[in-house]
Amino acid sequence: MGSPQAASLRHGRRQACAAGGASVLVALAAMLLAGCAVGPDYQRPGLDVPAQHRAAETALLPGGTNSFGDLGWWEVFGDPQLRAYVAEALTNSWDLKIAAARVLQAEAVARVTRSQLFPNVGVGADWTTGRISENGPMALPPGSDPQREYGSVYGTMAAYEVDLWGRLRRANEAARAQLLATEAARQTVRQTLVAQVAATYLRLLELDHELEISERTYTVRTNSLALTRARQEGDVASMQDVYQAEVLVSAARAAIADARRRVEQTENELNLLLGRNPGSPQRGESFLRQRVEVLVPPGLPSDLLERRPDLRAAEQLLVAANADIGQAKAAFFPRVTLTGLYGVQSVALSDLFTGASQTWQFGPAVSLPLFTGGALRGNLKLAQARFTEAVARYQKTVQNAFREVSDSLIAVQRTREFRERQEENTRARQSAAELANLRYEGGVTSYLEVLYTEQELFTAELLLAQARLNELLSVVSLYRALGGGWPESLGAPHPAQVDGR
What we know:
CATH architecture of the domain at 48-119 and 166-334 and 391-499: Up-down Bundle
Distance between the termini: 96 Å
CATH superfamily of the domain at 48-119 and 166-334 and 391-499: Outer membrane efflux proteins (OEP)
Number of helices: 11
Low-confidence stretches: 1-34
Helix content: 55-70%
Strand order of the largest sheet: 1-2-3-4
């Protein structure tokens, strides 16, 4: 018999060995379950990002880190009615509801994909009772009970794949990227919706203004026609003058009919964006009082990669394509699956939960593809080719975003210049028309000169209205191109910001 010190030493060694063995088992289990994820880890591809946005005139919008796109739409649009319509569209738009439903679908797909990382465990029970015929071909021993009962209670684990090579994790990565891309697509719909509502509302107000111009012109020309007829009856003017005056009246009447058609169709377009049935929506401030101005610089081009949701969506699709390569590579390696069952089974209910009634089964399985006729290699090449396409598509989307911002900056500058020149042209046409009427009334010129100058003035006034609209729309386009709409960092607007209080 050894000493107490020796016994204590042997006991300590046994504990150390047991602890060491447990540690090894834990480490092996961790390695077995964790494995390694084959395939490339995602890295953002190289992008040729310009140092600053190309604009028609750099003095228009000086550089800076802040961006016009960082403003909330309630800070950009000054008309309270327009702000109310944007808020209504963000609540009721069918396109936004469709996009939200797609996000829910992507969330469900991601949840189903992630569930493959965990074992599928289930429980069940059954009980069967029956009676065997005593007169049948299988005679029972004398004294046997013809009634039979048996039951079982069990728990099962369906075939569970041990993710040694990261196939399931790459699938989960791809599903999550698809979810983020779908969420970014929903934000793109929301951003586009804000710009569409603003542009449609401004076009509606511009058409109202065109209708006012046409009706005012019609009134003036009707009075002029009456005066010309009176002069003709007094032998001061000819019938040719009357006919020419009637031409002006007919042209104004036709313009009124066309303007009303476009007004009503644009009203229907706005109602659809708002989730309403066709009708006549309420107007806010008049067209000439609309002010949508660029108050801050466009910001740095590199910020577009994070601000514009369509760029984020394109990159997440690239992440998903990269993860698909890992899934295709993992298919070359052995696949390990585990299945198991544990329960109790007995022909007597009283013996169901005794030790003798236990039953269990556990079995790992390993499968390795040896020959697939090139299918695995083909799938890998397909995934790599799709990734190459996604890279090119992402880079093109980024460059197109820079182009849209540059085009919008140019439009803001040039449409303002055009509107200023058109204002000068309209004032000149107004003076020419007034002078032609004075000359005609004084008998210096014929009504043909009045006809020409009146037509030119009418056309110039309509072009000026369109020039003002294009200037406003260029700012809306710039706001959308910069990723404006509803920046997440700002949160939802306060109701007072929406209704203008």
